[in-house]
Hints:
mainly beta, 5-stranded antiparallel sheet, 32% strand
Amino acid sequence: MSERSTSPGETVPDEPPPGATTPCGTAPGQPGPRGTVAGEGFHPHLHEQPPGPVAPLRARLHHIRADALDGDTAQSGGMRRFAAVSGRTVGSEKLWMGQTHVAPSTASSDHHHGASETAIHVVSGHPEFVFVDDSGEAPEEVRLRTSPGDYIFVPPYVPHREENPDPEAEAVVVIARSTQEAVVVNLPGLYALPATPE
Length: 198
């Protein structure tokens, strides 16, 4: 059995010892209960090493508990945003993720998210997402009524607002954005922006 050095005075085998099994009880290299083989599959990036040293925050997994969400993030009137995954909390470079809570019978202020692409997953309540569609002859206000389990995609620079028409229940959504931190540009009204934002 060959060995590789991991630190001065410490070695570990390159291959498992004879008779070893994986956590699911199969021999290494043999299909598991679902027909998969450890180490096999399409993973083109696994053998690429990042250039230079890896920053400490980017060398491990991060667990953000529900009671540890960070409310110190960009806000709009009528809603509360809580960051879970961000450059500040975990060192992410291209992703922000968190929750938004809209109180009963409340509407957020009009806003957009700059160059961020935003994906929204409805967790609870029936929030409505309102924007102006100017693709026709005259601009038209569009209202998307959602239910738990639904998704919404918000392209960059599209002004919109969230509303919760329910008089009793809070609406909660999970948000993912393609930027390191939450980008929120609050607006004086709901209107379509020029095709090329300045």
